[in-house]
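Now for one specimen:
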Amino acid sequence: MPRSRLHTATIRGRMRSDPGLLVLIGLVVALTVAVTTAVEPLGERTADRAIAATVRDAGSRGDVVATAPRDYGDPTGTKRQPRSDVELRQDAEYAHYVLPRRLKAVLRPGVATLTTPSLHLLDNGPGRYLRLVYVDTPQGPPRVTYSSGGAPQAGVGPSRASLTVHPDAGPWPVQVALSQAAASAFGLAPGDRLPAEDDQHRPVSIVVSGVFVPDDADAAAWQVSSQLLHPSVGVSDGLRSTAAAALVSAASLPDLRVGVPADDLTYRVIFTPQPSQVRWRDSRALEREIGSLQSSGRSSHGDITWDSLLTRVLEDGRAQIASARGQAQVLLVGLLGCALLVLVLAAQLLVRRRGASVTLARERGATLLGVALELLVEALIVAVSGALVGLAATWLVVGDVDWVWSVPVLIVAVSAAPVLGAVAAARATSARRAPANRSARRAATRTRQLQRVALEVAVFAAAVLSLAALRQRGVGDLAAASAVLWWTVAGTVVVVRLMPPAVRLMLRNARRSTGDVRFLSAARLAEAGARALPLLVVSVAVAQLTVGVVLASTEQEGQSAGALLAVGGDARLTVPANPGVVDTARAIARSPAVRAAVPALVADDVQASSRRSAEPVRLVVVDAAAYGRLLAASLLPDAPQLARLRAREGDRVPALLLGDDTALRDGLVVHWEDASVPLEVVGPAPRVDASLGPVVVVDAGAFADAGAVAEPNTVWAVGPGASSAVTAAAGTSGSVTTYAEVLRARRDAPLSSGLVRLAVVTAALLLLFALVGVALAAAVEAPARRESLGRLRALGLPDGDLRQVLVGEMLTPVLVATLAGFTLGIAGAFAIFGSLSLEQITGQTGSPGLVVPWWLVLVLAAAVGGVLVLARVEWRHLGRRALAELLRS
């Protein structure tokens, strides 16, 4: 009766006979498990950092704002409320109380504000606007130091704190404090009285009590209104205007509520998110809770209305994370597929070396199950040992592990050798004989061919379906992420199909040659050069390595191009508009290592209209010729249409327009200060400072000839010394943005830096797996090759020719597989990169161009070097065999 019990002595003996191959299998398992178990924990941490960075960069767009219903006042009079600050703080606490649990955990305690609209000051001409703002944080009012005057005080004493102000009593005075910058912008001092009016021309009386300097300009209280510390000067409806905000204290708050019409007051509680508390996995739940608050509106929560753009911020962050995770899946699936193929190839070599013992055991009565179990125990020991090493490494480095991606590695590492061993034992001891009938043999051959064709068709079907999934859904699931892997396998199947005819053609041509080397190399290749699995391992490894390198290089280059476009050059200086900016630009241009510097006016939200449309645009007024020279001196995209801005015809000023709204092109007019300038669109505009909205570019001279005065507020500079020159010229009033800083910020962002690290790790492992595949492929054919070369040596073939035959036989399949991997990898990158949303990571306004680095040829050099080393080792092994032994064999 056949025996199926395990023979431990046989297992120990087999493991001692091939320790190097077993260690190699364990190393492949350990490395793959270490990477795959670390990806998910590190990916989630990276996603959390990315969503936190998105919320942090969003600034006030991420605030959750609770607005109390408007009070339209009592027409018979308004009673002064001396405890107004306490009432508003209680309302803020109630608004915080009604927040949903998960949302409350990520928001800071609310900042209560009571604000007026911009009040028109009537003291010194038009264009002067002041907003009154009361701010109360959980830590109290904002801390300030008064440089002159003092804090706003109540307009009445304690005995009259609750008086009623009648509508016909005239405007009630409200004391306020101004920042130093606001007081300078308006030319005001403590004690000044300011008559003002609201949009409905109702009077308001304002008294300046003091001028302050903030103790901490970065405190949350000042984020309520940027105009509290920084007044703005701009153009509104063609008129130059100055706008600022004044601070109301708790003492003067009751006067604000009676001195300003009740329907002008807006009470809000602003909740600022804590970026470090926002988690990627909780982002959808946060969106739902915010949506629930907004939809509840006046149906609950004391008639509080809620508003927030945090949902859009979270959506944008999640879109970037989804893109990055999809790209990581592409890299990870490629690495996993290559590792599985390496394990199968190693198992095939292991079974070949176990062939004699497995066949002998089978002939002595061992069942196929028993043979498989013995090999299973051996494979299990090796796989579990490697997996434990990989898990321990991940746990020590990362502190957490995830098993999902490692399961296929363990399954293949454990099952490949037992399955292949049982099949080999069954074939070696099979009683089935070849049929004597020719038609039966042909039928058997056709059956085998049909089986192979069916397998190939299945591979191509999987490739087509995976690419269709990628095109339809983008990256995000395994079916789409495996598109490159399946197409690489399909391409390698084509190469395997084409190899035998190519080798036969080479052999036919070699027969007519006078030398022996070509013929003998071709003969050996015809016998063993087109084996599918070794070619597949090397081809897949090189293809996936190529995709990873191209992905990392494309993102790096895209970030560089995006940063350069966002800055507008190597450095950008932004200052208040004034004529002196032209002299500043000339001084920067004369600085060492500065190739060009151009002044320009860059104004956002400038009203533009046409016969069919009206919308705000970014207006750029620049010397077209100088700007063209700056673009030519840098890596910025060229704009040849700039030359058309100098050729003015008729009353319209030539302009370049960038944007999707074609309705603006028909009769375009921009409204600047007190002039309306008609424009003639003559071409597309460059994307100035990476603008996403419509951009209008006009020449400064032509704009001035049309009667519009546009003083520059921006200087772009290019050249190695641009950053230092612009920084030196900035002074205290200018803001400097450099290309190096923007690029560093983009590359240090969590998603982009995490993807680059993953691409580097996977590329290194794939290069290692490619070399392991070359070594395993050489080892699989080593016995037959040594026998053939030994015969040739015994027949008297010179050593030099023998070396060439050896190198030719080993190198040709590797070259074919490597070149096929390069081709398939680059083709796969071109096919899938349009679906990876790389612009989400690079920060560009469009998809980046594919970058294939030249140093990828080093992979080919590494493969060739590996083959030459293996050929030298085999030659030494062949040289150690005595000629007499070869003759007897």
